[in-house]
Specification:
heterodimer, A: 318 residues, mainly alpha, MetI-like fold, 2 domains, 16 helices, globular, B: 298 residues, 14 helices, 0% strand
Chain lengths: 318, 298
Amino acid sequence: MERTEAFRPSLWARLRTWVGKGEIRPGLLAFLLVLPAILFLLAIIAYPILYALWLSLHEVTLKGLAKGELPFVGLKNYSIIFRDPVFWRSMLHSAEFVGTTVALEVTLGLSIALIINDARARAFGTLNKALMLLPWAVPPIANGLMWFYIYNPSFGYLNVILYKLGLIDQFMQFAGNPKLALFSVVVAFMWRVTPFSVLLFHAALQGIPEDLYDAAKVDGAGALARFRFITFPLIRSTLAIVLVLRTAFAFMVFDEIFAITAGGPGDRTWVASWYTYQHAFSYLEIGVGAAAAYMMALVIAIITVTYVLVVYRRVEYA
Amino acid sequence: MARTVRRRLRLDSIAISLANVLVTLFILGPVFLLFLGAIQTEKSLVEDYMRLIPTQVTLQNFEVILLGREDILHDTGFYHLPRIIFEFKRVFLNSLIIATTTTVLNLLVGSMAAYAIARLRQRWTQGFMYTNLASRMVPLMVLMVPLFVTLRTLKLLNTLVGVIITLTGFLLPYTIWILQSFFASLPEELEDAARIDGCTRFGSFLRVVLPLSAPGMGAAGVIVFILSWNEFLIPFIVNTKAEVYPVPVLIATLVTDYHVYYSLVCACILMGLLPSVALALLLQRYVTRGLLAGALKG
């Protein structure tokens, strides 16, 4: 008896052969490797999405949370926001913000990419390529406060510069001006996010073989014709991705609104995320906030489906 | 003929250079103005505002924030001095803890999942990849409403742990997406060779794939670090006490209805954006590759 026991490999050795030498089935290994990620995604993304739906169908207050009393109210929270003119105005402001930002960002992003990619730019182009990531890395809230300070109506640099150039004869309001408030936020937001589009466009431009342009030149094509018939068709898939991604991220804008206008003046810069934030965390009507959040998620969901389709379509042809 | 062509070429390159100078101004202009604001006294900022470049350059704002030298400030009765500014060093440390832990967790959990997606292709890993891509687009505001309630129940409000867990989960889809494109770009023959030499699947992941994808890990790591350093909404909602603030929340609370020390606020913002900007510029090759891999596929 004792002899057989001596020949038996120790538990550790058996574990080693099982893990180390004997192969785990790829399916099981894949599952084990993905498991921690799945747990995180379930806890931080999937569960909150379902919980938000539940919350949006209940009346949730801090007092109710403390007592554990959250009465079911059906679609009442949704009917509250649908009957709230501020909600519709916030959605409208969001549309206005997204439209302006994305249009300007794509135009500016593509122009900058063409400018820094031009061989004749030499050292300037190299410098700009190196600096391009700077705005991207600035914390959004710091970016907002930086512009809040530049826009200051009594001593801000924008007023000083415009005055010195003779473009205005007295200092003016930017963030506090109902006509300019939303556009002020657009400019600040654009400064931070345009470099990302530049990066994608620049990469796409670099992928275009130089001899295509040479051949077109030989055929007598001008700069505009070369852009129209070579550059544009070859960056179209990148353009589609940039459009979809930037639309989604512009719709989620929060930090710059918080820092520059805080929704004001009046409700002129209330956008979708600001409406959600105010209801959930300032008025502490968490149920109403969750309902507003769900409407936001719905808009993003439509954009996301487009994004996934665009990304995978691109791969099939690549 | 030849001369006019040459002249046109020269004019073109001057125009391109000028356009590039404008681009440089566009990038550096706002940050330079912030810098100008930070290196002068409040008096010269508010009263001598028509002079863009201050007559007297001073580092007193940085001394106040970093050394707590409140005594060198003038007019303390007139302007509102936010006391929280003296917490800057602790808040900076909080940010460092949050960003580092989030990055390590993301790389650990993300690299395993990304390897499974890129190499151990199963029918369900494909589905996981679609879900992962879609999770990247979930608006943070939607998650924050229920997460606030959950973290409150779990008594994780006002802790760094609450922020770290939330941030890790929120950024994980992005990390997985970047890493899986890097893993997929490694030639499969390398792994086959390792396995013929007696390596297991997991062993070849540890010994062959991971060392070779150091650039990919670096790219994902630096991006996650910057994004977690910059994150404002999560800690702003989860943490309401100054001792658990990260930098973005501190600078957001500086501006109130009072007349604050703008020069001091400028200095604070400048120091808050310095770490992520410096990292992005120093490691820009990695960041660029990561961002491209994250937006496009492969």
